[in-house]
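Aggregate trends can hide what the representation actually does to any particular protein. The sequence in question and its structure tokens are set out directly beneath this paragraph.
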Amino acid sequence: MSYQSINPANTSDVVATFNLASVADIVAAAEHAKAAQKNWANVPAPARGRVIAQVGRLFELNKSALAALVTREIGKTYKEALGEVQEVIDTCDFFLGEGRRLYGQTVPSEMANKQLFTFRMPVGTAMIITASNFPAAVPSWYLIPALVTGNSIVWKPAENAGAIALAMEKIFRAGGVPSGVLDVVIADGPTTAKGLEAVLEKGLINKVGFTGSTEVGRKIGELTGRYLQSPCLELGGKNPMVVMPDADVDLVVDGALFAGFGTAGQRCTSLGTLWVHEDIYEKVKQAWVNRVSTAAIGDPTKDVLYGPMISEIYLANHVKNLGLIEKHHNVLGSTGIGRITSANPRAGFVGDPESGFFAHPTIVEGITASDALYHTETFGPLVGLGKFSSLEEAIELANGHGYGLSSAIYTSNPHHVWKFREGISAGMVSINNSTSGAEAHLPFGGNGKSGNGSRQSGIWVLDQFTRWQSMNWDYSGKLQKAQMDNMELPFDPKFTL
């Protein structure tokens, strides 16, 4: 079946056309990857690290071209797209050294003439399934550590980011990653689900990495559990930002603007609800609404806050979520809601609104814990606004929906910082900073509805793509039985001074 990837900012622009994979194609790719894995694992780890270094340099060389493709295929602003490709480069820079740091340990034995060791071993072959909102950066968090640790990979990107994935595959190949060690298959959702089950049943896949919705993550967790596997799941978020009375209002507004509406709110770390202390509420509200109402939106090649929704489907889901707005809510932030058109204009829009899938920024004031909007990840330019009277109440509101990905607090009081950090369930906490943003050497991931506790980035992701192997070496020349033949030195239990 043929698929056309469309520029969401200019729907007349067909970015790429390619054939979607079948279940048989996915199985064949997994067989190819499994066959290639042993030879790749036998390449010395420092040499694999040098391959990653070469890949990083090629991403650096092609940074502008790849960023332009990201802007064209998914509508991310060019400035954000450049930052995304830089994240790939940073990840390569970090992991090139891990090829020389895949440390095991020597462990003292209970018995004489015996040594104990631990080793990191590759898991084998991984299937990586990624979303379209970060089509370059997030895949790199899986692909690069998996490669440097000696695994082979079948990568299933989002269909509407297929051109980006194929371009990245070419860069990896040019950097020295052999065919079979990393292969891209582009398939629709139902085919991917059937293909994943098939490769798991055949024993071709040893690890599944998935970035996407909580709903799909649950299904993958159930499926992999049948085959006694623990997947790496990076799922949705309803990320809170708590504003205390002593917060810097200008800084709050900067953070809330970027967290709420960067990438048109299509980030798993996007701001879910801005919770503001009642003493400072009106001041923060007016400043934030003013910034959102006057922000430039439109053509992602221009200087705008955000461009289009990633696809027509994402736009439709956003419009559907607007139906969760209730009578007690107050809608702010733009000259309309829903899709931006000539008949439903956005003041100051940059470009032609009819050319793409553009949506109004929407602030919904009056969010409470009983609202459907409080519990729902909206994944679009739709952000809640609510108030609280104490830090304890704010923490309860920040945790109550069950998501636990990213969070933030704005305050100048260290006591507030530490109390919030201790009480929040999120895997990531920002102090006087946005809920969005990640660095290549810091663990990324969530808890609860946001993930199964697995972490990406930094040294922590190594635990996703390696298995610990222990070895004991007894050179005593006799059988020594653990916990039975232990050496005991004499002591006087009745000794006193």
